[in-house]
Amino acid sequence: MSRFGAAIFGCVGERLNEDEKRFFAEARPFGFILFGRNLSDADQIGALCDEMRHAAGHDAPIFIDQEGGRVQRLRPPLAREFRPPLEDVSLGARAFYLRARIIAHELRALGIDGNCIPTLDVARHETHAILRNRCYGTDVDTVVRHGRAVVDGLLAGGVLPVMKHMPGHGLGTLDSHKELPRVGAARSDLDAVDFAAFGALKDVPLAMSAHLVFEQIDPRPATISPVMVELIRQQIGFDGLLMTDDINMEALCGTIQERGAAALAAGCDVVLHCHGDMGEMRGLWERCGEMSDAAQTRAEAALAARRAPDDVDIDALNAELDGLIA
């Protein structure tokens, strides 16, 4: 198998332009990610997914952020409207499984086979509003129980889960899209709560890193910290594919190329670039190139976790979820 490019890329519009097709054929990215700018109707989305995979030259996973609530790229009539996850915590793990299984059904119908959930960050009172209601609970046990249900629901529906934001963003009080959050919590508290949530789901095939600093461990943001990536690998025990959060986020400093290179040097396997800017993508590819041997092995293992969806009566699942919500 030819080596994948060490990147997941977005694109500008609803179909690939000729420059994008040529570039993706050259860069052969591991996967792609879709945003609202790329989505209009079912036929268009399916055609775009086909173009992306054809350009990359392999059955590339195509990811999306379909969490429910504010972070939900697909809306009616393409997909069911879901509440923010934290609002459904009282409904229990079955509701989280149903949410994920229904979402998987909707995504696969459009050609999308990766979803950047579960969000395993443990919510606190101080958790920044950009994240808080996207969480699955306010204690480790609840988050783990709901996270496992989401993983099971996605995999049953043929969609790869990506747990985030590793090793835990729940203590972040700033929006990492705009600023660098810093967490001063003691290592013992992090081990017992934030890191423990991810350790319980260390078998999930893919994860996304967090752009925040754990001041008691290392002064660098986790995404570009060899110390934090080693903690993810050794203490938490995660040996799946580790992608960065969006490399464009302003929690990180330096050029896009410098950020991507630092993330790979720290031990991340693949760089997520969401904006679709051709100059940035080409510069990132020229700097970061192909996956390492270890990253390629993890990427192939992650892709092997994709499977055909189980047969399901989706109307019955929707009705069951409605009954739990009522």
For the terminal residues, how far apart are their CA atoms?
50 Å
The topology string of helices and strands comes to EHEHEEEHEHEEEHHEEHEHEHHH
**Largest β sheet strand count, sense and barrel closure:** 6 strands, parallel
**Sheet with the most strands: spatial strand order:** 7-6-3-2-1-13
Shape: globular
Summing up helix and strand content along with how strands pair, one would put the structural category as: alpha/beta
Work out the number of β strands. Answer: 13
Radius of gyration: 18 Å
Could you explain how this protein is built, in words?
With 326 residues, the protein is an alpha/beta fold. The protein is built from eleven helices and 13 strands. It has helices spanning 18-27, 42-56, 93-110, 140-156, 187-192, 194-199, 226-234, 256-266, 278-288, 293-304, 314-325, and strands at residues 5-9, 29-33, 62-64, 66-68, 71-72, 114-115, 160-161, 163-166, 182-183, 206-209, 213-214, 241-243, 271-273. The strands form four sheets. Strands 7-6-3-2-1-13 form a six-stranded parallel beta sheet, with helices on both faces. Strands 8-10-12 form a three-stranded parallel beta sheet. Helix 3 (93-110) packs parallel to helix 4. The radius of gyration is 18 Å and the shape is globular. The relative contact order is 0.14.
